[in-house]
Amino acid sequence: MTNRPVPLISAIEASRVYRLSGEEIHAVRQASLDILPGRFIALVGRSGSGKTTLLNLLAGLDRPTSGQVLFEGRDLARFGERDLVELRRHRLGFVFQSFGLLPLLSAYENVELPLRIAGVDAKARSSRTSEVLEMVGLLRRARHRPYELSGGEQQRVAIARAVALKPPVILADEPTGELDSTNAHAIFSLFQEMVHRDRLAIVATTHDQTLLDLADEVHEMHDGSIRSLRTLASDSPDEMFKPPASRKTVDATKPVGTVRS
Ligand SMILES: Nc1ncnc2c1ncn2[C@@H]1O[C@H](COP(=O)(O)OP(=O)(O)O)[C@@H](O)[C@H]1O
Ligand SMILES: [Mg+2]
Question: Which CATH class is domain 9-101+167-232?
Answer without folding.
Answer: alpha beta
